[in-house]
Amino acid sequence: MLIKPQDFSSYSMYALIGVGSAFFAACAATSIRYLSSRHHAYEIVFYFLATATIVSIPLMWNQFVIPSPLEMFYLICIGVVSLVGQLFLTSAFTHENVVVVEVTRYIGIVFNAFWGFLFWSEIPDGQTVLGGMLIIASCIFLSRRRSLETKVGKLKLNKVAMNTGAKR
């Protein structure tokens, strides 16, 4: 809905990059969930950041600029906030269903639209608003579905326990 799939002229490399990004984010989320059974969240985050650093070195090799003290301060602040966010995200993946966490992350698209409106006066069209509403509705549905599945599972266990107790 957000990239307007019915308008073929809107298909671009940027839309393909968005789809690829979603695919790799899903792979990362699944990997984090798998690794969390064997490794601590700090270790997972460390290796994620170390890999990102090593991969980015060739990309900036010929164009690296030494930041000014103010820019260095901003970069350190961004790094600290990103580190804390990554730790919380990794913790969420270890304690909750990957699908619920990933879908909840898509609420960021709604916030991005809000920031675009607030800072750059970008007015989202009806289809963009509808897409954002679908994202929020999906998040609510998946989070409630998880709690309903837990309740139904408990009810089934109680019913089985009551039936086996009655037969004795």
Description of the molecule:
- By secondary structure, this protein is mainly α.
- Helix content is 80%, strand content 0%.
- The protein has helices at 13-35, 41-60, 69-95, 98-105, 107-120, 126-167.
- Helix 1 (13-35) crosses helix 3, helix 2 crosses helix 3 and helix 4 (98-105) packs antiparallel against helix 6.
- The longest helix is centred in the C-terminal third of the chain and has 42 residues, at 126-167.
SSE diagram, text form:
Layout (H helix, E strand, L loop, with lengths): L12 H23 L5 H20 L8 H27 L2 H8 L1 H14 L5 H42 L1
Helix pairs in contact: 1-3, 2-3, 4-6
Notable features of this structure?
mainly alpha, 0% strand, single chain, 6 helices, extended
Anisotropy-based shape: extended
Q: Please outline the major beta sheet.
A: none
Average predicted local confidence, pLDDT:
79
> Which regions have little confidence, pLDDT < 50, spanning 5+ residues?
none
Total beta-strand segments:
0
Strand content: under 5%
**Cα-based radius of gyration, to the nearest Å:** 22 Å
Query: Helical content, roughly?
Result: over 70%
Quote the distance from N terminus to C terminus. 57 Å
- Oligomer state of the chains in this structure: single chain
Number of separate helices: 6
Q: Topology as H/E string?
A: HHHHHH
Short recap of the structure:
The protein is an all-alpha fold and 168 residues long.
